[in-house]
Amino acid sequence: MDPQKLQQQYQQQQQQAEKLQQQEQMKDEMLSQILTPAAKDRLGNIKMAKPEKANQITMKLLQVAQSGQLKEKISEQQLIELLDDIAEKEKKTTSVKFQRRGLDDDDW
After folding, report:
1. What is residue 105's DSSP assignment?
2. In the chain, what are the domains?
3. 43 neighbors 31 (Cβ within 8 angstroms)
4. How far is C-alpha 62 from the chain's CA centre?
């Protein structure tokens, strides 16, 4: 490959990484504004254990904040309630169906 193309690709990757970092920083700043310190700590713990769930919660919190539905900072208890609501929605009912064999004349 051409060294110039490689350098351009490298620069593009760096720019994308910087954009992602800036977006993460903006998310963190917004979360600091809408969450109490205890709630932010809890969200951080969730992020370490289940990153995809933490991302889902973060997106939901940011949507609520951007729509103007928040009147005060979200407390740890409110965050727990939100987690419970999400868990209930994701709960899947498992059912087991037994397929019985029909009566066969040879069995008797």
Report:
1. G
2. 6-83 (1.10.8.140)
3. yes
4. 11
